[in-house]
Design goal:
By secondary structure, the protein is an alpha+beta fold. 52% of the residues lie in helices and 18% in strands. The two termini are 23 Å apart.
């Protein structure tokens, strides 16, 4: 069952991503030859207008195949015949739709469960928060210049900036105060702690639709920031590729979450699956915007270079760069998948 649920989630996220490309392509008069879900041989499909809609054998990935996207084409409606900014919008629409999907699902979750405000329930004895005079009921507003919206933001800051001294702005009885905290290493947890005590438990604070929409934006921002920070730690060597999960690891995570929620009923299963969709969709949006060949971000870099130069880059040379990037990306995915399998049986 966990595999079925994971495949449904993957399919929804990928379909929404490709839908972004598809809708902007149609809007800009670009011919879409095929819009498919999955990879490999076609299981079923049909033509509607100029586009062939299909379902592939392998339930991974999907594609919006535009005329002349990877090669020169003299056909009417070819990708390359449109302005550089029209093509830029079409490519950027995929990640943008991932963020849009994350927002919509976050809005549903927040409407149902609320959100976790960064309000302290206590401070730990002997740690910097207590020494600085922070008290239960204080609201953390900023840490290190970063705006804090959820209690999860506090925990995330401590994770991604372990051991760092931080300037903290907090609110008490409508007044703002500032202090500087130096974390202490806790042997029991194996982490540096500032001494904050709170909860990431979600609570309904309002039924105002605009406030819930605002916190839905913050929710997406939280996952975008978490993804960027994780990538920063990978590049800086603070974590390794072995610490990341690929499809196998994600399927296992989805399955574990599904089984835990199943005992509470369909409502909690739905909420937990929506939450996973938010996390994965935001991740996919960020990763796809990385300026690497074969990814949407890599294509956007080539389009920006074209806009600056005022002339197109040789499609064959660009295609070769993307092909090499795709091969390297597949090799990386193979390494990550191997590590996922090793962890399962390790």
């Amino acid at each position: 069952m966990k595999i079925v649920v994971a495949l449904i989630i993957f399919s929804i996220i990928i379909l929404f991503h490709e839908l972004g490309h598809f809708l902007l392509a149609k809007k800009n008069g670009i011919k879409v030859n095929e819009f498919c879900l999955g990879l490999g041989p076609t299981l079923v499909g049909f033509h509607k207008g100029e586009t062939f809609y299909s379902l592939k054998l392998l339930p991974f990935g999907g594609a919006c195949m535009m005329e002349g996207e990877d090669a020169d084409s003299s056909e009417s409606g070819a990708f390359g015949s449109k302005s550089v900014w029209a093509r830029f919008c079409v490519i950027a629409a995929g990640p943008a739709f991932n963020f849009l999907m994350a927002f919509l699902f976050s809005f549903i979750i927040i409407c149902c469960t609320g959100y976790d405000l960064p309000i302290l329930t206590d401070v730990s004895e002997g740690y910097a928060a207590e020494e600085a005079g922070l008290m239960p009921g204080d609201t953390i507003v900023k840490m290190g210049g970063k705006r804090i919206h959820f209690y999860r933001d506090i925990s995330a800051y401590g994770l991604y900036h372990a051991g760092e001294t931080v300037d903290v702005e907090y609110e008490r009885d409508g007044q703002r105060f500032e202090t500087t905290l130096v974390p202490k290493y806790d042997e029991e947890s194996g982490r540096y702690l500032y001494g904050f005590v709170g909860t990431a438990y979600r609570q309904k604070y309002t039924n105002n639709v605009f406030t819930m929409a605002k916190y839905s934006v913050y929710e997406v921002g939280y996952w975008i920031s978490s993804t960027i920070e994780s990538l920063r730690m990978l590049v800086s060597g603070l974590v390794s590729v072995n610490d990341f999960s690929g499809p196998v690891g994600i399927v296992n995570m989805v399955g574990d979450t599904y089984e835990e929620a199943a005992s509470q009923g369909a409502y909690y299963i739905l909420l937990d699956m929506l939450y996973i969709c938010v996390f994965l969709s935001a991740n996919l949006g960020v990763v796809n915007l990385l300026p690497l060949p074969a990814l949407d971000g890599g294509r956007l870099v080539f389009l920006l270079i074209e806009a600056i130069r005022g002339k197109k880059i040789d499609p064959d040379k660009e295609g070769l760069v993307h092909f090499i990037g795709l091969v390297l990306l597949l090799l990386l995915m193979a390494v990550v998948m191997f590590n996922d399998i090793r962890k399962l049986f390790g």
